[in-house]
């Protein structure tokens, strides 16, 4: 059994905005007469938009009207309507997420983006999508090596580490990018990012030369080299960190690059003022640095890596031992309350109180409860979990959404329905690892109801 899903990815970045349309082929990979197992087997890109400069009204304000029209035009060029889209993501990245009206722009885009493409982002998600869009995970698995991917864009450098089996090990993010300085056609500085305060950055109105910018470039390179472990961590790295550094592996990883700056690395003869920013000079400095002194690769995609990741790699499938009923899909932007293994092992009364307190953090808004679950649960285990969760969610908080890592969604879902009543709006997912502080989108069932597409999201706004 095979089924196709149409996916859209939109990347609203510091420098550029892009859109892609992909077809995801979903198949049942289980043997005959066994429980269905739905997997995304193929990802085919049907349309790639041109690379547009992100429309701005000022340094602090996005041009919402122009961005909306840009996306509407791209739908026309792609020959699809938003109503045809079944999954995907809108990613707001880098410094764009700090613009004053970013929330309003994202809301407008989500209304243009079909029933399930919803505004999502955050440093961790951006790091993963860019790395997967560039093929860093595939390279790690194919070569049996650690790969540390750097997606260097206009405002940030997003890092993602993959182990030799191609599994994500860690993420990090730095305020290092090509758009931290902007120039007009004469070479005069028109914008200096606040993150460069206290460095060797020029001031607005100055007309620097490539040579005079080298001390600033040295600082940015030092921060990147410290982030990948080529230098001991110092105040330089801490100055540019947005959230955290990557925990480095025991052996030196292969470095992988994507983003607009990586695109300039692939085209070293580009005039340094070509894009009116620091990107070309930063790319040249990276090529001269220790970052390129050892094993490194440019991603299969450079400037398009994030948007391809958003359109082709944002969706996971939960199934096939899941339970749901009475729910109108899609469910969007559900905050996640996570139970630790210790909390999930509580006796039912204490578990119920713990669940109630965690969900209370979100008021009366719908929320999802996430826990690891048990690999081989007994009837008593399932009953204890169901008693505690049912007591914690009560009869008024609906829909009841539970997400498990272990394969026990159907058993727990059926037990919850017995306790909460047949009319309860319930979704019980499994096969999902959900980081603390995430949000969930859950789409309508596919594969004759055997699986639910899920997007796991991190916060767009700190």
Major sheet size, sense and barrel closure:
8 strands, mixed
- Give the N-terminus to C-terminus distance in angstroms: 42 Å
Strand order in the sheet with the most strands: 16-23-22-18-19-20-21-17
Count of separate DSSP helical elements:
13
Strand content: 25-35%
Gyration radius, in Å: 23 Å
> How many strand segments?
23
Class from secondary-structure proportions: alpha/beta
* Mean pLDDT figure: 83
Shape: globular
Unreliable sequence segments: 311-315
Helix content range: 25-40%
How is this structure best described in words?
This protein is α/β, with parallel strands linked by helices. It is 29% helix and 27% strand. The protein contains 13 helices and 23 strands. The strands form 5 sheets. The chain has an 8-stranded mixed sheet with strand order 16-23-22-18-19-20-21-17. Strands 1, 2, 3, 4, 7 and 8 form a 6-stranded mixed sheet that branches. Strand 5 (56-58) and strand 6 (61-62) form a beta hairpin. Helix 1 packs parallel to helix 2 (102-112), helix 5 (214-227) crosses helix 8 and helix 11 packs across helix 12. The radius of gyration is 23 Å and the shape is globular. The model is unreliable at 311-315 (pLDDT under 50).
């Amino acid at each position: 059994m095979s089924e196709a899903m149409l996916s859209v990815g939109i990347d609203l970045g510091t420098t550029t905005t892009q859109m892609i349309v992909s077809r995801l082929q979903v198949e049942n990979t289980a043997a005959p007469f066994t429980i269905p197992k739905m997997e995304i087997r193929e990802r085919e890109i049907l349309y790639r938009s041109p690379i547009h400069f992100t429309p701005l009204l000022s340094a602090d304000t996005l041009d919402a009207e122009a961005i909306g029209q840009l996306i509407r035009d791209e739908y026309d060029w792609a020959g699809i309507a938003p109503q045809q889209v079944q999954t995907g993501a809108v990613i707001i990245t880098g410094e764009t997420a700090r613009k004053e009206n970013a929330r309003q722009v994202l809301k407008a885009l989500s209304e243009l983006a079909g029933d399930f493409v919803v505004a999502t982002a955050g440093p961790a998600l951006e790091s993963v999508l860019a790395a997967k869009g560039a093929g860093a995970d595939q390279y790690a698995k194919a070569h049996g090596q650690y790969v540390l991917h750097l997606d260097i864009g206009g405002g940030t450098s997003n890092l993602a580490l993959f182990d030799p089996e191609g599994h994500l090990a860690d993420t990090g993010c730095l305020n290092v990018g090509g758009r931290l300085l902007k120039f007009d056609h004469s070479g005069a500085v028109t914008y200096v990012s606040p993150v460069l305060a206290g460095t060797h950055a020029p001031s607005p109105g100055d007309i620097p030369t490539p040579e005079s910018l080298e001390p600033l470039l040295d600082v940015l390179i030092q921060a990147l080299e410290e982030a990948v472990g080529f230098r001991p961590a110092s105040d330089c790295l801490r100055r540019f960190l947005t959230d955290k550094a990557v925990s480095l592996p025991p052996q030196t990883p292969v470095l992988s690059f994507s983003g607009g700056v990586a695109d300039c690395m692939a085209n070293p003869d580009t005039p340094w003022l070509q894009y009116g920013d620091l990107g070309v000079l930063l790319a040249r400095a990276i090529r001269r640095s220790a970052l390129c002194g050892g094993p490194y690769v440019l991603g299969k995609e450079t400037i398009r890596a994030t948007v391809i990741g958003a359109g082709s790699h944002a969706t996971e499938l939960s199934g096939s031992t899941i339970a749901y009923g009475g729910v109108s899909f899609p469910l969007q932007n559900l905050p996640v309350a996570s139970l630790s293994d210790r909390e999930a092992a509580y006796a039912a009364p204490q578990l119920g109180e713990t669940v109630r307190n965690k969900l209370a953090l979100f008021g009366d808004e719908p929320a999802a409860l996430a826990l690891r679950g048990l690999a081989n649960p007994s009837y008593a285990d399932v009953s204890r979990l169901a008693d505690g969760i049912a007591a914690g969610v009560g009869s008024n908080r609906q829909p009841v959404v539970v997400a498990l890592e272990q394969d026990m969604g159907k058993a727990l879902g059926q037990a919850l329905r017995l306790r909460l009543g047949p009319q309860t709006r319930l979704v019980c997912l499994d096969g999902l690892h959900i980081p603390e502080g995430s949000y969930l989108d859950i789409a309508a069932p596919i594969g004759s109801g055997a699986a639910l597409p899920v997007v796991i999201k991190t916060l767009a706004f700190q």
